[in-house]
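Reply to dn_fold:

You asked what the input looked like. This is it:
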Amino acid sequence: MLCLVVALAAEARPLLASYRLRGVGSHPYRICAGEQTRLIVSGVGKVAAAAATAYLRALIGDAPAAWLNIGIAGHGRQAVGTALLAHKVVDAASGKPFYPTFTAPPPCRTTLLHTVDRVQPAAGDAAYDMEASGFCEAAQRFATSERVHCLKVVSDNPQSSYQTLNAEKVEALVAAQLDTVAHVGEHLRALSQQLQVLHADPPGLAELTARWQFTATQQHQLRGLLVRWQTLAPGRPLGDGLLALQGRGEVLRHLQRQLADTEFTLTY
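and this is what came back:
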């Protein structure tokens, strides 16, 4: 699943059609949903971004997800309209850094991104926004840094003041970078799908736990043994004999013996 967090309705509007999202009612935030995509409009500021990110996480539950904060940012040197991925996010008030991890070459330039508490003119070779550090603070509590990223579109620089911005301009800036958003989003979604496969129950787990009341520790052992069996003997059934065993301990010992007797070959 891909979760998008934006601060403004104007930033959200181009994404709704692109991802075919529909509004979901009865929530304190504006939330839109589509196939394997969720979007939440947080409001301005790092506290608002953190709260909205945590709310969306509670809404989707434990499903593995990737998180992308999309929005505008000022930059001291880059041209208006440039798309930038943050390689480092720093909370200007506390100095706390966050380091998104890239698992593939970025489709656009990357930048240092400062999250500030008040709008200010951008300066130097860095971007400035008001949400990213709060978003990262919340999202990295339940997702690894490979799946938490910030994509910003430059909205102002020393030659173009932030005071000239309005909702129409913000919407147009995000709309012009939908291809970049799609590229980053699809890569993050693929990462979350790979994680979902890794976290899926191995074959046989449901049948065995339905037959015997394994303790929590035994369930952990059973899952590990079945994952090893799936790796060493993919597609090979465990056999009907397991269900004829007398107890939980006997099941675990039987699986351990089967694994010990299984030959495997490393290929290069």
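The chain has eight helices and ten strands.
Hope that clears it up.
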